[in-house]
Amino acid sequence: MHSFVYRLNTLVTFAAVLLAMLCAAASLLDAFNSPTVHAHAEVIKINRFRKQLSGNDEVSLALNISMDLRSLFTWNTKQVFIFLAAEYETSKNSLNQISLWDHIVPDKDHAKFQAQVANKYPLIDQGSNLHGKKVELALHWHVMPRTGRMIQDKMAVSSFYLPGTYT
Amino acid sequence: MDWQGQKHSEFLMQILLVVFAVVAFAVGYAIESFQMMILIYASGVLLTALITVPNWPFFNRHPLKWLDPSEADR
Predict the structure, then answer these.
(1) A1 vs B: CB within 8 A
(2) Does A7 share its domain with A77?
(3) Cut 0.90: pTM above it
């Protein structure tokens, strides 16, 4: 307290400590939010199932996606990143996960919607294991806070079978 | 500042900052606006800085009584 600069330093330090406590408190309160997510996604049509020149299978799909993510949003939520993953098993890997489509939901107003889309990213296998394969679709979401820990969760939505022959 | 003034300034600084932090959190949580919490807190910090950091005259109401130069020399 002996000089202007001394007092300024004390103030800035104490203000920073309190700010850290405010952010910690805001983040902690998020743990009390128990969200209920409703989501459904299914394959309307398999547009294309072919073998690439590299020897890998490639699938192009049309999807019908609908969801209600409003309960995920708190005052401390900056945005929610969602992606639809196709999961299947091969003899080489017990779990293959491929992201077909993703989206950023910026606020609660945009959290409930329905869309019919083609997959943003092609479903490409490492090899050609997809004949007649059962593929499960799961919706993953990452809740990104303004301050604190990111929460991620997922939900299985549907499954489909790929045809036995190329189209 | 004098000694009393320094004590008052430090006390004021701590109280004001804590009060603004609590109020900012309460208001932000109540109206569900993170931005409002930050805004209230930031303006509180600025106000506290304005009140407690500069050497205002009301912090110098008990000035130190220095010896006269002639007395010190003896």
Answers:
(1) yes
(2) no
(3) no
